[in-house]
Amino acid sequence: MSTVTDWHETGCARDCINQHTKQWGRCAYAPESARPEPTILIGGVETAEDGHGEIVLRSVPLSAWNDLITVAKWVSRGRSMVFDPDPDIAPHYPDAAARRALGAVDDAGILNRPGAQDG
């Protein structure tokens, strides 16, 4: 006689019937540390193997995207104002945020994509 709790009663996916997977969103016993970082998808056109363009979606962490927005706000103020504090944006130029955000975008394969077509 099996003592396995019904997967639906524990809030788990069917693959937790015999043993809990502890996967976020699939298992009721998943720890908070298993929660994936929020991301956004950025689309672009790349050249496929057949030579035609295809739309490819790349995942970028939401925190990196927000850092890029902050950096863009600073850059849009102009070169003469880059180092002037603006409490509405950030207390100082977000240099570290820029490096972190660009690194995440590069890790996602968005920068210098081979076969990418210019818009």
What does this structure look like?
- The protein is of the alpha+beta class and 119 residues long.
- It has helices at residues 7-10, 62-76, 95-107, and strands at residues 39-47, 53-61.
- A two-stranded antiparallel sheet has the order 1-2.
- Helix 2 (62-76) packs across helix 3.
Total strand count, please?
A: 2
Give a short account of the largest sheet: 2 strands, antiparallel
Strand/helix succession = HEEHH
Alpha-carbon Rg, integer: 22 Å
* Distance separating the two termini: 63 Å
Strand order within the widest beta sheet: 1-2
Helix percentage: 25-40%
Q: Helix count?
A: 3
Structural class: alpha+beta
Point out poorly predicted stretches: 115-119
What coarse outline follows from CA principal-axis ratios?
flat
Strand content: 15-25%
Mean pLDDT: 75
Summarize the structure.
The protein has 119 residues and is an alpha+beta fold.
Give the SSE map.
Elements: H1 7-10, E1 39-47, E2 53-61, H2 62-76, H3 95-107
Antiparallel strand pairs: 1-2
Helix pairs in contact: 2-3
Observed structural traits:
119 residues; alpha+beta; two-stranded antiparallel ribbon; 15% strand; disordered C terminus
